[in-house]
Design goal:
Blueprint: E1 10-13, E2 23-27, E3 34-40, E4 43-50, H1 53-63, H2 69-75, H3 83-90, H4 92-108, H5 114-124, H6 127-130, E5 133-137, E6 140-144, E7 153-158, E8 166-169, E9 176-180, H7 183-192
Antiparallel strand pairs: 1-2, 2-3, 3-4, 5-6, 6-7, 7-8, 8-9
Helix pairs in contact: 3-4, 4-5, 5-7
């Protein structure tokens, strides 16, 4: 959540729904306001802020029941959900598809760094990487077999920069497993380091 919440003053309200973390409630430092955040399997599903403590009680009540995100927002209007949260509700394949679309849009919006775009497209064209959750850290692509944070780092690729080679790593900004001259060669090298039985990304985190 955005804004200056001052010193961390928070509480958690437990949920009986499997997989849902306790609803986190943060108290504003300079004014009467309460921020809430609800996570499940490494994904923030709901967030919002309100000056009314009764709203927080209502939010905790519906968070503790097996309600869809749409139902949660309808019952407690100050709550909001991201597109990623909506995808998570549909399943890990929907999260992976959304993340790849977002990454390709990000690459298309950075024409000054064509090597990054070439890497994204080459990775997307490879079925074994396309089935994983993709994320970026300072332009390095990471690939995870879990859709929630913290991600499980299965392999990572750094794009070429200033004519340097593409670099394949176990995770972003870690020890280099190998180098390649082109995005396609880097993708092939990355795939060769994946476990043979690695399947599509699933919900959950590395923890």
């Amino acid at each position: 959540m955005s804004g200056d919440w001052g010193p961390r003053v928070s509480a958690g309200i437990a949920s009986s729904v499997p997989g849902r973390k306790p609803l986190s409630v943060h108290i504003g430092a300079d004014s009467r306001r309460f921020g809430v955040s609800g996570w499940s399997q490494g994904v923030e599903l709901i967030t919002g802020s309100t000056p009314d403590l009764a709203d927080v009680v209502r939010a905790a009540g519906v968070w503790g029941k097996d309600r869809s995100l749409r139902e949660l927002r309808a019952e407690v209007p100050f709550l909001h959900s991201s597109e990623r949260a909506e995808a998570h509700e549909r399943g890990p394949a929907a999260v992976v598809e959304l993340q790849w679309r977002t990454m390709r849009e990000q690459a298309a919006g950075a024409p000054e760094f064509p090597e990054f775009g070439e890497l994204v497209e080459a990775a997307h064209a490879e079925p074994r990487l396309r089935q994983l959750y993709v994320f970026s850290s300072h332009w390095t692509l990471g690939f995870s077999s879990r859709t929630g944070f913290p991600f499980r780092d299965d392999v990572a690729i750094a794009p070429s920069s200033n004519r340097s080679p593409y670099r394949v790593m176990t995770r972003p900004h870690s020890d280099v497993l190998g180098e390649a001259a082109t995005a396609q060669e880097a993708v092939a090298l990355a795939v060769s380091h994946l476990p043979a039985d690695l399947g599509p990304a699933v919900a959950g985190t590395a923890e």
